[in-house]
Amino acid sequence: MAASNGLGSFEETSNDDIKSFFDSSPPLKDAAEIKRKLEEFIQKKSFLGKVVLVTSGGTTVPLEQRCVRYIDNFSSGSRGAASAEYFLKAGYAVVFLYREGTYQPFCRSLPNNPLLECFEVTSESNITARPLYEKTVKEAISNTHVAASNGTLLKLPFTTIFEYLQNLQLISSSMSSLGSSALFYLAAAVSDFYVPWESMAVHKIQSSSGPLDMRLAQVPKMLSVLRKDWAPKAFCISFKLETDMKILLEKAGTALKKYNMDMVVANELLTRKEEVVVVTKGGNIVVQRDTTRADADVEEPLIKLIVDKHSAYLS
Ligand code: PMT
């Protein structure tokens, strides 16, 4: 099931709504360990400069506490993974908050179904990449190793809306010490509706009980609290996804003002890999993929533009 990305998502979110969302969420597993990793990462990076949080993939909304069924939000994670790569190349340290099982930086070109197709056993003790995949595998391995040895990439997984928002709060609070060197790039597809934990069925819902009648609560929008309280000096970029071109730019413009974002990246579902429109207070900028290069993506010019704007913001 795919959740709507919400035409009615501009109502006010109060601090009480946010508090009650967090109070009623199941506690984040390993929160102390995540916090420790983040603090270590950010402390090291704060001497070097810019740190970006890239969120990627869709959040799920469980229907049962012992979850068998869930509502999902569409996102392959390709935008987030590609963007993380370009931020790393531009010298940023990247916190990559991603949906478990979605695309990863430097591994986008590898077939994930099945990954083993890339390799062959050449002798009893040797495994090599098949010629077709040799270049892609080499690049994926060396880029991943460079990021690992430089310690510039911290990956944190999530699945549910509860995990995503709790991680977002932890990361934002840790990054607030970086002031304007912190950049938020919120490309994850975040659920607008959810089942509050306390009113959720514990066990698998039985189909023998007849048709399912369920009321979903509204997920509080965290963008304004992120901007106002969690990381007030950071450079903040949110995304706006619509399927109807006619309302896309208007909704992105409203989000820019309402949540006081520095940029809103507007994209339409079917053309999102070809073109995005960056909505800013100074006007709209159309960013397109270079169609003369088969392997070009829209994230390359998009991240270049963002890096330039962030540098201007810093200076
Ligand atoms: O992963 P791909 O397949 O490459 O696709 C990329 C993408 C289309 C998912 C990506 O480019 C994108 O548009 N992501 C944002 C999708 C989304 O959730 O849009 P929205 O219009 O519902 O939300 C707008 C913003 O509000 C988002 O930045 C989101 O982080 C934020 N939000 C949403 C819901 C909510 N309850 N709280 C929020 O803060």
From TrEMBL:
Single biological process term from Gene Ontology: coenzyme A biosynthetic process
Entry keyword Aminoacyl-tRNA synthetase: no
Keywords of this entry: Coenzyme A biosynthesis
Keyword Manganese: no
A GO molecular function held by the record: phosphopantothenate--cysteine ligase activity
Pathway connected to this protein: Cofactor biosynthesis; coenzyme A biosynthesis; CoA from (R)-pantothenate: step 2/5
InterPro entries (UniProt xref): CoaB-like_sf, DNA/pantothenate-metab_flavo_C
Listed SUPFAM superfamilies: CoaB-like
Residue span(s) of domain DNA/pantothenate metabolism flavoprotein C-terminal: 49-98, 168-281
Pfam families (alphabetical): DFP
Similarity remark: Belongs to the PPC synthetase family.
PANTHER family membership: CORNICHON-RELATED (PTHR12290)
Protein's name according to its UniProt entry: Phosphopantothenate-cysteine ligase-like protein
Organism lineage: Eukaryota, Viridiplantae, Streptophyta, Embryophyta, Tracheophyta
